[in-house]
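REVIEWER CHECKLIST
Item 1: Sequence provided? yes
Item 2: Single chain? yes
Item 3: Sequence as submitted:
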Amino acid sequence: MNHPVITSLLPVILLIATGYVAGKQSWIRASAKNDYSNIIFFLLLPPLLFRTMAQTHPEHLQWLPVLAYLGSMVILFAMVLAWTGVNQRGAILGLAATYGNTVMIGIALIGFAYGEAGQAVLFSLLSVHAIIMLTTATLLLEWLKLKAKKSNHATSGKPHEQAHPAAVALQALRGALLQPTTWPILLGLAFSQTGLALPVVIDRPLQLLGQAFSPLALVLVGLTLSVTQFGDHIKPALGLSFLKNFVQPMLVLGLGLLLGLHGMPLTVMVVAASLPMGANVFMFSQRYQESEDLVTTSVSVSTVMALFSVALTMSLTPLINRL
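Item 4: Structure as written out by the authors:
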């Protein structure tokens, strides 16, 4: 029971199981899930990110691990588009195969396993993860939507109004900056440059709110699993989940070694890549009304599969550290 993989992963599993039981027993009603999610993402997450980044200097952020991770996302996204074609379905599924749950599960897991040093590496990724990927995905999806609308109007012979590309880009950037994973990081980094320290009366409540994030976020994962119907999309969901949970870590490892990474930075990025699909994929599938059932099933399957992918990746940590 003292094996590092067990001691790091078991608390995560137990907290997810707690949420699953709470959902099945109706201790937390399914109708309250959205409110529960809002508390976690809008009330507990920003203090955690702001307080952490307020104590971090940009020059201490580690960009090579981030480059390895983002590189793996680009490769996987391109692979999915090549398979499905360049369309809205392909963009949504490409996002599903690449966008990980680095916040809800990642922060807790990396903290349990590698402490603040590991979280510092992860926060380097979080500082750009949402802005780059969500903005890129939004721009691509908006362009594909306009392209499809133009094609439909051309077929019907009806005139159409086309948004200016700059307006689409600004709207996408605004949406990414308003994400609860983005603005606290940017504000925290800005505050760190002032050289000031947060007053205790402010810092202590922020600390308490941030400490509540990880356990409650993991409970929410279990609650979501308890109300999810897997339906008829298991086979494609297994394929997408395999790409996200197993192929992406291998890509990160390969790119990291090419960039000369080793030790803690490489380990944290590989473990982060083995995490399941992120909840933001839900929002994109619902917003663009594309592959909603498949994405919902895939996120659930990927979360269950992560019990194996994360355990496998963490068990290989000693080997990765020797590379």
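Item 5: Key structural point noted by reviewer: Residues 4-314 form a domain with the Na+/H+ antiporter like fold fold (CATH 1.20.1530).
Item 6: Recommendation: ____
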